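B., you asked whether I could sanity-check this one before it goes into the benchmark set. Here's the sequence:
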Amino acid sequence: MKQDALSQSRAFLKDSIRKQLDFSQTDQSRGVAAPPIEKPCAAGARLIDLPGPERWRGKFAADVVAAIANRKSRRAFTGAALGLDETAFLLWATQGLRGKPTEGHAYRTVPSAGCRHALETYVAALRVEGLESAIYRYLPLSHRLVFERPGEGLAEGLVTATLGQTFVGRAALTLAWSAVPYRMEWRYGLAAHKVIALDAGHVCQNLYLACEAAGAGTCAVAAYDQEAMDDLLGLDGENEFTIYLAPVGKTRD
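And here's what the prediction gave me:
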């Protein structure tokens, strides 16, 4: 009986995937204009320039084989601050551009289905040199941060939203990725929800490897209270919602 149920479940999954591959009814096929490739900023928003690769490129050079071999989840943060150069490097490594945007495309340092890049990156900064404790959003098109909300009670809020995982509150910062589903649905319809999850995995693996190069550590977190995390980031939970997060900090090992 148990095997029959598993077989039925697998058959349903394969049939669902097959149906998802019909793109004839997507908004792209209907000629609807593509959504913006980056979430707009509010009028008068506070913007913070980040140091670019010309300042830190040589500083974080690493052997790829060593970075892959040493990659692991690290939770024992020292409480030391991260520098702004390190923060800028990690953001570039996970969502930065590889060149100037052209014709509605922005090729980034991570792959994305159809180059749609449906993720936004939020930075919950607790101890970052040059930044006040607050929540920011990364703007890949200009390599800047936009101030989103103040950081009062931020460490406690992160621990609560991650179901009591106290190491999150000891990190220097937490990167939280949200999904803007329509950005991917516009091209892929139902199949968008599968590839958004795949994209999040690509981004977080880049973070792990970049942390090895920067002398920092991270631990991906998928166990969190959805409503609490969305509320902490100021998301509506429908047109944009948290999909993954990873605290980053200096580690003891």
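One thing to flag: The two ends are 48 Å apart (CA to CA). Otherwise nothing jumped out at me.
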